[in-house]
User: Fold this.
Amino acid sequence: MNNAHSKQEPRRSEDLLHSAEKRLRTIPAEPEPPVSPEDALRSLHELEVHRIELEMQNEELRQTQDELELSRNTYSELYDFAPVGYFTFDRRGLIREANLTAAQMLGTERQFLINQPFISFIADPVGKDLFAYHLKHVLQNTGIQRCEINLLGHGSANIFFGLLQSISMDASKGKDSFILCSIADGTATKELADELQKAHDTLEMIVCERTKELTSANLQLKQEVEERKKAEESLLVAYAEIKSLKDRLQAENIYLKQEAAEEHSFGEIVGQSSVLSQVFLRVEQVAPMNATVLLLGETGTGKGVIARAIHNRSLRKDRPMITVNCTALPANLIESELFGREKGAFTGAHVRQMGRFELADNGTIFLDEIGEMPMELQCKLLRVIQDGEFERLGSPRTTKVNVRIIAASNRNLEEEIKNGRFREDLFYRLNVFPIIIPPLRQRKEDMPLLVNHFVAKFNKKIGKKIETISKDTLHALQEYHWPGNVRELESVIERAVITSQGTTLQVLDRFDTFRKPGESGDQEVKALSDLEQEHILQVLQQTGWRIEGKNGAAVLLGLNPSTLRARIRKHGIHR
Assistant:
């Protein structure tokens, strides 16, 4: 490669010399006849110009030679000290040229490589056959051809991996073509590649083993998932069956409880005790008649419910039953409420109003807490009972009505007569068919039916699902003396349904703090009465002596307003 470049560079210098000689040959060989001085000067001038041109051409030639020498030196350094070894082979594989790097790679000096067969530096027979095939392939094809063989370095023990890249400079010249080849030491690369391949093979083996393990584990997991799904499906089916059975049992339980309550109920009256059966019997006896009925019993025993049962079993059931709570009506308005009023009958009476007796014509009027009626109105009521007539307030005209009267009182009316607070003749007119309603403490056997009845009622109202009542709770309810009777029980059960968590009724009222009357001496009874009086007084003062309404004392005490008024009178509490 160095000689070829050196032969090409002097061509420009030779061209310049040929040009100068051509110019000299244009000068005549023999002197011509004498010329004029002007022609001589002209010829001299031309010769001087040719001389100058020759000198310039010689200078250019020297510069070219200097550049060629510099280029040759530079090329020689690049060629000799290149990072790869360069060889020039002939077609037989003899080394014609080599750079210093090539000589160092093979562990010898460059002059000892010239005309040496390159095949003698190949470490193994396989490599020698491969190199021979490589030379043949390079000579028969154009472009760069590559080959990988093991070469001998410093001695036969030092073998390195050679990467050959060869090209035929002129394959058309046959035996005269020379081959250019570069050789790089690929030992480190091959070792790294071998290690990488080994690591890859090891990783592949690990991946294969791990894949087998994971495949096996995945298969086992799938089987477990399938088994779990089957188990879950079985559990869901079983759960659905259990839920269906539970819903069915709950429905049957509620139905049976309701059926039992209805079996031993009288309209809205729930119970099966002997004392209550006597009440049912008397209701059945008097209901079809038009006789006046007097219901006697403590507050909360259900006198209003009995009155409704009598009306519903009477011939007047298609007409309304008008209820008058004598305790709830102010004394100055009770007359106009009962008998009506004309417009302008008193200050504030701007319109004519029909009284309760007129509304109850051909029906039933229920006078609750009749013992609270003022004395001045008791005579007018007696007249209605006797004659069936009255006058509206502010009217001279008599109004006749056909009304069945059911009265109720939680007071002992005979004692009221003795104390001058109730007319004796009115009592006899009302006491035609008395029915005494027993207090709840005398109906302990009715407690389970009543509790189930109220639980079912408030389950539906509140949206709860109370299903069971413990024996201890039922025993506590039965042992309590129930001063508020059924109405108090209903309030207790409603509170319990609201506060209970789960399906079991939880009664939070502390019944063990109360004593039943008769279980203690007179001093203890009096102390309890005084305690009740003080408690009622405090609540009345707290509410500004307001009895009814949302923020009234009756709500705070958990009592009916009429019951609270009765206890206020009982204890002689005054504002």
Observations:
- The longest helix spans residues 187-263.
- The chain has five domains: 2-80, 85-185, 266-437, 439-514, 515-575.
- The chain is about 55% helix and 15% strand.
